Every structure is written in C-alpha cells, then in structure tokens.
Amino acid sequence: MKLLFDFFPIILFFVSFYQAKFLIDNTFIGNLINPERPEHINATIIATGIAIVASFIQVGYSWFKAHKIERMHMFSLALITVLGGITIIIGNPAFIQWKPTVLNWAFALVFFLSIFIGEKNLVERMMSSQLDLPDYVWTRLNLSWVVFFLISGAANLYVAFYYDIGALPETRMETWVDFKLFGLMGLTIIFVILQAFYLARFIQEEEEEEDEASELKED
Predict the structure, then answer these.
(1) Between helices 39-66 and 71-90, what is the axis angle to 10°?
(2) Which has more pLDDT, 185 or 70?
(3) pTM for this structure?
C-alpha cells in the first residue's frame, strides 16, 4: 500500500499523459495549452502539472495523517516543482525526464554517506527496531540500496535520451512514460523481493536461536 502511495504522482502522470487529449477537449486545461505545440509536448506539460499537484496532495496528506512529512516526499516535491515547472514554462520535456535520475542518485548519495555519519547507516536506522542483524548485513543492505538507486537513475537516463534514438519524438516520449511507471516500479518491487529473500535466512536463524534459548530455560 505504501508503495502505491509513494508512486501516486507517477501513476497520475501516466494516466494524465495518455488522457491529455480528453482533458484538453473537455476541461478548462484546454484553454491553458498552446495548440501549436506537438501533442506529445502538450501531453507532457499536462501530466507534469497534474503530477506537481499530486505531489503537494501527497505531502499534505502525510502531514494531515501523521503530522510529519517524509524527507523523500519533500525532496521529490521540490524536484518536480523546479524541474517540472521549467518543463511547463519552456515546453521542454527533458527537464522532467531528468527528475527520476536526480532523485535516485541523490538517494544513492544519502545512503552512501550514511555509512560514515553516525553509528548506524540509513537502512539500520530505519529497520533496526524490527530486526536484529549483524553489522556486516546492515552494511550489505545499505550498499545494495546505493547500487539500486544508481542503476535506476542510469536506466532512466538511458530510456529517456538514448533508447530507440531513431524513433519519432512522440514514440520515444511514450516509451519513457511507460518506463517511468512500469519500469521503475517493477525494478523497485523486484529489488524489495530479492532483499526479502536475503533477509529471510537471517530472520530464520534468529528465530531458531530464540527457540533454543527458550528450550534451555525450560530445561
């Protein structure tokens, strides 16, 4: 459920991009769009504007529900507002296309630096209350997130600017929009599942140790 909440602006970006013509023809948005621009540019502008609004709603809902805002959501909001705003103003999709890469690489940097700042890395700070793991496991988990964010950022750049370079601009834009939702979300789900499998053996070992300790007490 949280994954869907985190991807809420991306999902609305995807839907509004492919429903841009309907929005132009049937809502006030049509009055705000320059009809002389290519359709895929207008679709990107509309989707970007809706994603910005969705990001504000996401942050507002978090504050209303828990009276706190996740730093990831705040940073994402700042990025999409700045880069998305530039895309809307000048009509260049490249700026909003850079957003997932900047976000992922920023996360990679934060997770990497957390190894050297404080007694616990970022993953351990977030999960140590639920799991008791050896230090080397926390380090591996943290570094795996660094690698994941670096790969995700690089994959976004490749799809946005280098994949199928000879195709029509509108086709390349549609490919990137599809990847932005299904590709990045798919990568995230696969990575989380792989981490769960990795953690399972340590959780099992911990449960076995607890059972042994309990049996010794009973004896």
Answers:
(1) 150
(2) 185
(3) 0.84
